[in-house]
Design brief:
The protein is mostly helical and 370 residues long. The chain has a single domain, classed as Ribonucleotide Reductase, subunit A. It contains 15 helices and 4 strands. Helix 2 crosses helix 6. The structure holds fe (ii) ion (FE2) (2 copies). The site of one fe (ii) ion has 7 residues, from helix 6, helix 7 and helix 10.
Length: 370
């Protein structure tokens, strides 16, 4: 192992923490950190009052698509799946295995987070449009979470979803924050999965696990979920102007920065697919920003040199913070506090970089053509 590879691996160990048993996997899913996916709850009465009449025509077309359920038979493993798991998994290095497990656990937590939120909204409202939408989206997310869990079970690391639902802390978000955050996470989820799928389509020898063959049809579900939130926000124009533009900027940046830092703790995973983490992340940002022009009048400038430098700085600070935590004691605590303040400062500087403005299109929906 070269020095730089071993240094990188040290960072990964510091930031990821290794998973050796089902108990470790479950503990990891329950834990809330700045970087891990969270569970959300919201104001159900406000959700109940939503009126989507302004986008009725596009809404009804979308509902027909959900009803058609073109992925109803997609999330089943074929015989080849088991064969590939048996031959490919023993070939993973221990470091790569840890990164892949981290990827599976964080993806599952994030899928299941959507499942719980949509299900809770469905149960607590009467509004027929929103209730129907939440029923369909919870259906999709429960399939996605279950499918990833099967792959964790291959490693004897299945997550107890009932237990996770009961024990993980919930974060309360007003509906508008749910819309900004969930829209972005659905669209970024699409962009992440399609970027991986296209890459492995070009380089099948780099497909080190069969689950990636499922990503194309899978990410079309995420794309449609994002479309639903785009229609909801466009039906409530006050969410997309005035002071709310500042919130939109905040959420775009928070989602991008979290992803960037998190992905840079998994360099081997991206290398195995033939990517550098930075290159992969900027492709995902580019796709997400293009799609988001359907709904957000502002866009962060991902090609601004200060944006790129700020993202790199956040990765360095995250590593320094993890090292300080490892060190412990008074000095460790002081160093942790310092890096935390520096991270907030860096985030603030990123926030005040100039943004690009978009005029919103009359036709809201876009097609998943990436
Ligand atoms: Fe999903
Ligand atoms: Fe989704």
């Amino acid at each position: 192992m070269t020095t730089s590879a071993s240094l990188e691996f040290d960072h990964v160990e510091l930031l990821i923490g290794s998973v050796e048993s089902a108990a470790d996997a479950n503990a990891k899913a329950v834990r809330n950190t700045v970087l891990s996916p969270r569970f959300y709850t919201t104001d159900f009465a406000a959700m109940d009052r939503l009126n989507i009449e302004a986008v009725r025509a596009e809404w009804d077309v979308m509902m027909k698509e959900y009803e058609g359920d073109n992925n109803h038979d997609h999330f089943q493993r074929d015989a080849q799946f088991a064969e590939e798991v048996k031959t490919l998994m023993p070939q993973l290095s221990p470091e790569m295995r840890q990164e892949f497990l981290d990827f599976l656990i964080s993806s599952l937590t994030s899928e299941f987070s959507g499942c719980i939120l949509y299900n809770e909204i469905r149960k607590n409202i009467d509004n027929p449009d929103i209730k129907q939408l939440m029923t369909y989206m919870a259906r999709d997310e429960s399939r996605h979470a279950g499918f990833i869990n099967q792959s964790l079970k291959d490693f004897d690391l299945g997550i107890d979803l009932g237990q996770l639902k009961r024990t993980k802390a919930y974060t309360f978000f007003k509906p508008k924050y749910i819309f900004y955050a969930t829209y972005l996470s659905e669209k970024i989820g699409y962009a992440r999965y399609i970027t991986i799928f296209r890459q492995l389509e070009r380089h099948p020898d780099k497909r080190f696990h069969p689950i990636f063959r499922w990503f194309e049809r899978w990410c079309n579900d995420e794309f449609r979920h994002g479309e639903s939130f785009a229609l909801i926000m466009r039906s409530q124009p006050e969410l997309l102007r005035g002071v709310n533009l500042l919130w939109i900027r905040f959420f775009i940046l928070a989602v991008y920065a979290t992803m960037y830092v998190r992905d840079h703790t998994r360099p081997l995973l991206h290398e195995a697919m033939g990517f550098k983490s930075t290159e992969y992340d900027y492709e995902v940002f580019r796709i997400t920003s293009e799609i988001a022009r359907q709904v957000f009048p502002v866009e962060v400038d991902i090609d601004h040199p200060s944006f790129r430098a700020g993202m790199e700085r956040l990765v360095e600070l995250s590593i320094a913070n993890a090292q300080a935590k490892e060190r412990g004691g008074l000095v460790g605590n002081l160093l942790r506090a310092t890096t935390a303040v520096q991270a907030v400062w860096t985030f603030g500087r990123l926030y005040f970089l100039p943004v690009k403005r978009n005029a919103l299109p009359t036709q809201i929906r876009v097609q998943p053509t990436w």
